[in-house]
Amino acid sequence: MAVMRYQEALRLAMTEEMERDANVFLCGEEIGQYQGTYRVTEGLQQKFGPMRVLDTPISEVGIAGLATGAAMVGLRPVAEFMTWSFALSAMDQIVNHAAKITYMSGGRIRCPVVFRGPVGRGGQLSAQHSMSLESWYAHTPGLKVVAPATPADVKGLFKTAVRDDNPVIFMEHTALYPQRGEVPEDPEFTIPFGVAAVRREGADVTVVAYSHMVGVCLKAADLLAQEGIECEVIDLRTLVPLDMETVLTSVRKTNRAVVTQEEWKNVGFAAEVAARIYEQAFDYLDAPVERVGGADVPMPYARNLERAAIPHESDVIEAVRRTMS
Amino acid sequence: MEAAIKPETDGATLLDLYRQMLLIRRFEERCNALFMQGKIPSTLHLYIGQEAVAVGVCAALKPDDYLTSTHRPHGHALAKGVSARAIMAELYAKATGCCKAKGGSMHVGDMAVGMVPAIAIVGAGAPIAAGIGLSAKMRRSGQVVASFFGDGGANEGALHEAMNMAAIWRLPVIYVCENNLYGASTPVSQVIAVEHIADRAAAYGMPGVIADGNDVLSVREAAREAAERARRGEGPTLIECKTYRLCGHSRSDACGYRSREEEAQWRERDPLLIQSRRILAMNAATQEDLDRIEQEVTAEIDDAVAFAETSPSPRAEDALKDVFWEDR
C-alpha cells in the first residue's frame, strides 16, 4: 500500500496497463506535451512516446470515432474527454457506434475502448463545463459505466476497464482528483465491475451513492451518528453493471433507503435505483425511498448559486431524517 | 486532378471486374423484387448504377485491407468479398445472416474479409475509418482502409474532423466520396457551394482526385494510386467518384425530384454498359462469354436466395444476447 492522490492512482493504473499491454494507448486533447488539463497524464508521453500518448486536435467526434475504430481492430484505446461535458458532440459515436457494434454484428466484433475524463463541477465553471450525464450512458445498452469514489477504486476499476472487452464510460470527479488514500501497489490489483462496496455499516438507513457523493454521504453519516442514527453507506462503484444485491441486502436490514446523486435529479440514476428497490424490496420498506440530487437547473456561475444547485451533507441528513420520521 | 486510365488491363481482369459489377446489379435487382414480394422487410437502399465505384476501389485493395460503408452497403460488401449467401440471409432476417439477423440491410459486413459492418449514420464512418487506419499504422501492418460516403456525407462534421486527423497523422485511409448528385432527394448543387467535392481535399492537405464513377477502370486507377500512397506512409487521399443512382434513394422513393431525361442520359453511361462495350471492343471476350457470366451470376444469386429461404430464423431469446461481448 502507498498513500497517493486519486489522480496519481489513475496515472499509476494507466502506466501499469500500458506497460502490460502494448495495444493500450491514450488519445485526447492536451494529454501529451501539456500533460493533461488535470495533470492525470503527467509524464506519460515522455515515457511512452507520442504515438501511445497521442495529442489530438480539438475534435471530440473524431476522438470518439478514432478510438472506436481502433478498438474494433485489436487496439485498446483510452480516449480522454477534457471534461465529460465536451462528450456531448461525440454522443453519436459513443451511443450509435461504440455501444452497438457488438450487437449489430451479431456478437462478432468487440470494441474494448475506454472513454474517460472528469465530471462534475470544476469550481465555478458554470453551465457548459460541469455536467456528467451518467444516466444518459447508463440508459444505453452496450456501455458499462464506472464512477470511482476513492484512489484505490480509481486504480482498480480503471485497470478492469482497460481489460474489459466492451466500451466503458469512466467518470472521474474533479473534486476527487486531489484526495489522498491508500492504494495497493500490486500491478495485478483490480476491482471487478458490478460489486458495490459497503463503506460504512449501519442498521437504520441505507444510503446509496457513487463518485463524489460517497464522501458527502459518509460525512452526513458521521453527523447523524452523533444523534444516534446509523447509516449504511453503499458505494455502487459501477452503475452498469449494477450491484442491486448489495443494496437490497442492506434495505432488507434497514427497511429505509436514501439514494443520492450529484447530477440533475429529474430522470437521474437515483430514480432507477429507487425504482428497483420498490420493485424488489417493497415489502421491506418502512418509509418511502428518498432521493437526493442536484437542482434541475443549468449549473450557475456564482459561488452561492453553484452551492445551491448541488447536494450537500445537509440534504442527505434531511432525507435520512424524513425516512426516520 | 483527374485520374488517367491506363488501358493495359488484361482480358481476364476486365471480365472479372464486369462479373463483380454484374453480381451487384443482379443482386440488387433481386433484392428489389423480393422486397416487392414482401420477402425482405424493412427498407432497402440499392446500389444500382454505382457498381463501378465499389468494384473499382476494392480492385485496388488487398483481402486484409478494410472498408467502411454506409446505409447503401450491399455493393461494397459484395465487392469486398462478403458472400451473397450471408448478405441475403441477413436481409431475410435469418440466423445465418452475416449479422445473425441483428443488423439487417444497413449493417451488413464481415470482418473476416475486412468489411466493417456498415455504418448507417451519414458521415459517421469517417472517424471510425481513421481509427482503423491508426491501428494499421501503429501495428505497422501495411493495411489500408477505404472509407465510403456520399455527397450527403460530405457535409457532415464528423467527416471534417476525421479527414483532418487522417491528414495530420498520415493515416492509410482512402476517403471515397460517391457523388451520385442527390442526397436523398436534394440536388448536390443546392447544398455544396464548390463544384467538386474533391476540391475540399486541399483544405486538409491531402490529394483530391476526381474519378469517373461509372467507369470501373477510372475508379480502380485512382484507388490504386491512393492505396500505394497510403502504404508508403504518405497519408490519405480523397477520391470523388462522379456517379448516379439509377434507382430511388430507398424503396419508398419514386424519384419525383429528377427528370426522366436526366435518368436516360445516365443510363447511357451505365457502368455495366461501359465495361461490356470495352470488353467487346477490345476482343477481350465474346458476347457468349458475357452471357455465360450472366448465367453464373444468376446461379450464385439463386443459391443465395435458396440459402436464405431455407435458413432458420433467430430464436426470440437471442434478442437479449450480444449486448456485451461476454453475453454472446
Polypeptide structure, described:
The complex is a heterodimer of chains A (325) and B (328). Chain A is an alpha/beta fold and 325 residues long. Chain A has two domains: 2-183, Rossmann fold (3-Layer(aba) Sandwich), CATH 3.40.50; 197-324, Rossmann fold (3-Layer(aba) Sandwich). Chain A is built from twelve helices and 14 strands. Chain A has helices at 6-20, 44-48, 60-72, 91-98, 101-104, 134-139, 151-163, 212-226, 244-254, 269-281, 303-309, 313-324; strands at residues 2-5, 24-28, 53-55, 76-80, 114-119, 144-146, 168-173, 180-183, 197-200, 205-209, 231-235, 238-240, 257-264, 290-294. Chain A has a seven-stranded mixed β-sheet with strand order 3-2-4-5-7-6-12, with helices on both faces. A five-stranded mixed β-sheet of chain A has the order 9-11-10-13-14, with helices on both faces. In chain A, β6, α7 and β7 (168-173) form a beta-alpha-beta unit. In chain A, α1 packs parallel to α7, α8 (212-226) crosses α12 and α9 crosses α10. In chain A, 58% of the residues are buried. The mean pLDDT of chain A is 97. By secondary structure, chain B is of the alpha/beta class. Chain B is built from twelve helices and seven strands. Chain B has helices spanning 11-36, 51-58, 74-80, 84-91, 125-139, 157-168, 188-191, 201-204, 216-231, 260-268, 271-281, 287-310, and strands at 66-68, 145-150, 173-179, 182-183, 186-187, 208-212, 237-242. In chain B, the strands form two sheets. A five-stranded parallel β-sheet of chain B has the order 1-2-3-7-6, sandwiched between helices. In chain B, α1 packs antiparallel against α3 and α2 packs parallel to α3. The longest helix of chain B is centred in the first third of the chain and has 26 residues, at 11-36. The N and C termini of chain B lie far apart (48 Å). Chain A binds chain B through residues 25, 51, 56-57, 59, 61-62, 64-75, 77, 92-93, 96-97, 101-112, 141-142, 144, 165-166, and chain B through 66, 68, 97-103, 107, 109-111, 116-117, 119, 121, 124, 126-136, 138-139, 157-158, 161-162, 164-165, 168, 321-326, 328.
